[in-house]
Amino acid sequence: MPGLSLLALTPDDLDDLSRFEHANRAFFEAHVNARPPAYYAEGGIQAAIAQAVREAAEDQAYQFLLRDATGVLVGRVNLTRVRRTHFHSAELGYRIAHAANGRGHATEAVRLVLQQAFGCLGLRRVEATAAISNTASCAVLRRNGFVQFGHSRRSFELAGRWHDLLHFECHALQEKERV
């Protein structure tokens, strides 16, 4: 999807990220476990950005913002739990703004972050999970070359209900074969 860009999270993104997180809080919390209340309190998002910058500098995790052609923040993409020795892997997570859903942004965000992961970050494997009921997210992963390798039952609780998770993986060689 032309016009979307993936940029590393920086302290300069505080205002945009605050608006994005607050505007989409209820939407996100309907699908994933809620962030702690301190995240939304005064200074919480600023502290989270500072932590993200530290984690990137320490090669532990990488957080990116997805912006449309006009610069509007439409999503977030994260590579967390980076493991270098023996694994060269990370875990993928993403969130697309409620108003931007259904436009292919998630598919493009994952494509762009895989370029980062398998390119300049030198990772060899990226893992992701999706609730079995989240068919859209499963489709995004599959469109980007992810293959399901597992199914964990009653893996996480959300709103008092237990949910199954599907586990996916994508390898650097798969990325090169797709392009």
From TrEMBL:
One of its GO terms (molecular function) is protein-N-terminal-alanine acetyltransferase activity. Residues 4-167 form the N-acetyltransferase domain. One of its GO terms (cellular component) is cytoplasm. The keyword Acyltransferase applies. Keywords: Acyltransferase, Transferase. PANTHER family: [RIBOSOMAL PROTEIN US5]-ALANINE N-ACETYLTRANSFERASE (PTHR43792:SF8), GNAT FAMILY, PUTATIVE (AFU_ORTHOLOGUE AFUA_3G00765)-RELATED-RELATED (PTHR43792). Belongs to the acetyltransferase family. RimJ subfamily. This is Protein N-acetyltransferase, RimJ/RimL family. It comes from Gulbenkiania indica.
